[in-house]
Amino acid sequence: MTITSYAQAPASSITAGGETFAYRELGPKGGIPVVFFVHLAATLDNWDPRIVDAIAANRHVITFDQLGVGASSGAFPDTLEAAADDAYTFITALGYDRIDVFSFSMGGMIAQDLIVKHPGLVRRLVLTGTGPRGGKDIDKVAGTTYWDILRATLTRADPKEFLFFNRDAVGKQAGKDFVKRLGERTEDRDKAISTKAFQTQLKAIKAYGRSAPSNLSVFTGPTLIANGDHDRMVPTELSRDLQRRIAGSELIIYPNSGHGGVFQYHEEFAPAAAEFLAE
């Protein structure tokens, strides 16, 4: 029986390069898989099931923990480029030489580093809530993150409600709904990220923001870029910047939404992403 619900996806692991990668897979096997690259501080439990399930209805989906995160072994590396190397180790260990990518935020940065080094690996690319290497103000992510964690702590909320969503009535409700969906898996949940790994990720993002731009023109595959119109973490303008750098890419900007615009608008975005990846 094919599992198409992320809440039911079994926990798996594979050892490669002397380290163990934790991952989950679901959807019909065969063909090119869609590998999901997750955001800052996130584990396997941080993917919106509404988006994963929509894609897994017709595609083989693989989500994984980078090294040093969740149930994976090792340490998160000092650079996102090294994290992309780890991802390549994981993908090739599973036996794939061609994948599609769905990425969000930091995951989109790692995915870009992956395609720059291995332009033939990725067929179709989805970049959400992310920006290019050297992108304006990416290095300010840490400041925004710590401020919103403080605000969330004071109101006993999940920091993602502040970081991903606007603080108007619509955004507040979208944030609560999103956090609730993340709790739908009740058994065999992932380990939370360690403070050390989280701080290393923040430093790696800062370095990414302060480094020279990558040559994204090496990637010629179909690309879908999406964000909210008021992203405080990775400014929305950087999604437009990505569209200019990747020839022929499509861009969707959702109104009245922030960093988590694709989660706030999951009813529109999930089928659009599934359709894009199915072409």
UniProtKB/TrEMBL annotation:
Keywords: Hydrolase. The keyword Hydrolase applies. Residues 34-262 form the AB hydrolase-1 domain. One of its GO terms (molecular function) is hydrolase activity. This is Alpha/beta hydrolase. The keyword Transferase does not apply. Signal peptide: none annotated.
